[in-house]
Amino acid sequence: MKTWIIANPTSGSAQAKLDRVRDLIAERPFVELKVTTEPGHARVLAAEAADQGIDCVMAAGGDGTIHEVVQGLAVAASPPRLALLPLGTGNDLARTLGISVEPVEALALLDHGVLRPLDLMRVQMDGKTYYGANVSAGGFSGQVNEVMTDEMKSTWGPLAYVRGAVGVLPDLTSYQTSLAWDDGEFERVEALNVVVANGRTCAGGIRVAPEADPSDGLLDVVVVRHGSLLDLASVATRLLAGDYLGCEEVSLRRVRRIRITSEPGMWFNIDGELIGNAPVSFEVVPGAISVLVPPEPVPAGPEPT
Ligand SMILES: Nc1ncnc2c1ncn2[C@@H]1O[C@H](COP(=O)(O)OP(=O)(O)OP(=O)(O)O)[C@@H](O)[C@H]1O
Fold it and tell me: Which of 17, 65, 139, 228 has the most other CB atoms within 10 Å of its CB?
């Protein structure tokens, strides 16, 4: 299987692990390592791999790198299969798919992995189209902007209240948000966050969509409605514990498509990359690509008697 490993040398643990990856693939004649030289390069390389009929593209980096690779694969006529070599900080899609952060184990999936269909989210904002592989989170506004660094914003922005962090809790903006589910009419809600998810976690393991299945042909949309400070503190705590879907302010709906407008404009990121605060639509592309994942663990047999 001809494979290109597209590696981002600036991803979280790349410095520590890339030499090891080089050693591990030295004996694999069909595996080539392509190291990116700038942001956006992984997309170009992934598109090139598809053009050249490469069988498999392994995204070596974090969710930002996977995001770029997916932009290249999603528009290909017959996209190579995807594999992941997690070298990022959060590695959230890899978590959902059960892919190890150990290079030896991740690389072994090239031999023993099984193919799983991976849905993508087609996102449209301001006349531009993006493809998301993991999670898009919307929320936050001016106050958060002022107190957070760019990196914190793209990672935590929409979920800033979780960090309790930034002292924004007392001053949270609520958004007059209109949501149109599938082809339905717009419905208004006073929201704090809208999360549109294919994968289950973002920001390094925060379970924003704990029940999402990236192969089910549907998007999990979680809406956090505005509530009292006390209630929101409980939402934050339960989000960290992975069970905030049980909160009264939190609702989950599964759809193929959702359109969102809000006043003021809700900022959205996709896979951790901030895209803007204009009206936005999300549509699932069921099984857009195939991804190599570990085989299902064999269920334990009955205890010997
Ligand atoms: N050669 C490069 N030089 C500088 N930046 C790059 C290069 N290649 C890719 N990038 C950028 O690095 C950013 C971060 O990458 P990535 O998300 O893979 O790592 P991470 O932030 O450590 O991981 P995670 O998103 O899982 O937390 C991406 O937005 C990507 O555009």
Answer: 65
